[in-house]
Design goal:
single chain, 155 residues, alpha+beta, three-stranded antiparallel beta sheet, two-stranded antiparallel ribbon
Length: 155
């Protein structure tokens, strides 16, 4: 995988639907994810919640970056993201839309170049823009014998 900043995350199954998630090179502890009952035990955020958290976190950080770029010193911000799952034409659950609300500590009138900040901060958000553009995901399954299987490829 090429890229300016390669990212690597590993998951190790810890329960029926629970995984320990390790972030390569990170100086912090692993994260545990789990599906809610009846599949899992709900002992951590599920993958959909992690996706939503990533979107809101990236947008919040991008907004702070853009504010600071114009020499603002914003107070703490608060972000909330909400979404619902819906079934697609094949009956599979998907998240078709999410709504993010970011609350600033100060009025916009007290912030330098707020119009420019508002116009550009979303473009700094790697996660949101990647989700909006669509992410190509190549999948390989390696069985216990070390044989590689690619879903959809001829057997």
């Amino acid at each position: 995988m090429s890229g300016e900043h390669p990212l690597r995350v590993t998951l190790e199954q810890q329960g029926p639907y629970a995984f320990r998630i390790d972030f390569e090179g990170a100086a912090f502890a692993s994260l545990r994810s789990d599906e809610p009952a009846p599949l899992g035990s709900g002992e951590g955020p599920n993958p959909s919640e992690l996706l939503l958290a990533s979107i809101a976190n990236c947008l919040s950080a991008s907004l702070l970056f853009a504010l600071r770029k114009f020499k603002n010193a914003p107070g703490p911000i608060h972000a909330e993201i909400s979404a619902s799952t819906e079934r697609n034409a094949q009956g599979r659950l998907r998240i078709p839309r999410a709504k993010v609300t970011i609350r600033l500590s100060e009025p916009a009138a007290r912030l330098e170049r707020f119009d420019r900040v508002l116009a550009q901060f979303e473009q700094f958000c790697t996660v949101t823009q990647s989700v909006r553009d669509g992410i190509a995901v190549d999948v390989e399954v390696i069985d216990g014998d070390g044989v590689s299987h690619v879903p959809g490829a001829p057997a």
